[in-house]
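User: Hi! I'm working on a homework problem where we have to compare a predicted structure to a textbook description. Could you give me the structure for the chain below?
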Amino acid sequence: MSSDAPGAVARDLLERDCQLVLEALAATVDPHDAIHSARKAIRRMRALLALLDEDDFDLARDDLALRRLGKGLSDMRDAHVVVEAAARLQKADGADDWNAIIAALAARREHILWRALASDPDFARRRGVVELVLSHVQQQPWERLRRSRVRPARARSERRVAKAAARAAHDGDDEAVHRWRRRARRLRMQLDAAHALGAVHGHAHGDSAVARKAKALHKVSDRLGALQDLRLLRNLVRNLPATMDKAAALKQIGAELEVVKP
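Assistant: Happy to help. Predicted structure tokens:
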């Protein structure tokens, strides 16, 4: 199988992201950013796996393992992004009202990380999951992958994004918006993967159309991600002790939510 065959490319992409997750989970410097990087790599792998024909590839259990791994890292990721979001708002406003809030959120972040490491020292169990996935990836019959069989899966994802966007516009609730974001983000990653596999239209016009669509999806997922982070920050600030001066911070968060809402 040549190195530019779609199967070889898919295998290489999955192997690369497995290695990125292993390195991130072993990081001792800036573990919070490393965990965020690990989750992004896990999402890329799952997006690519969703493009594969399940009749040829025995990776359904590995996809489930990656899903569980990503969910298991979500509390740590969320604890980190709210600290970053609060810091950005403080930088924009320059108010001292944020100091105690950021300190409390940072302490919460460290506690969540400590608790996770206490139950899984050095993330050894989690790294073991990734090593098993990597082993299974390397055993697959990648020579069977055909570009023509990737395109229908991508089309299904496009329909799911359109449906989720319509549902979010109709309902407007947090879960509908979050579903829209997840599907838009996955489709963007699948477009990147399909382009790498050579499973787009195969000419300059097709490549540019895919690039424009990916760029638009990136904007949508970033905007919805900012909305989700601000909503999470607002809920956490509301639940901080009543002795903290939270009014100004909550007002600023509310103003930002009005800016980024879909």
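For your comparison, note the following. DSSP finds nine helices and no strands in the chain. Residues 204-238 form the longest helix (35 residues). Good luck with the assignment!
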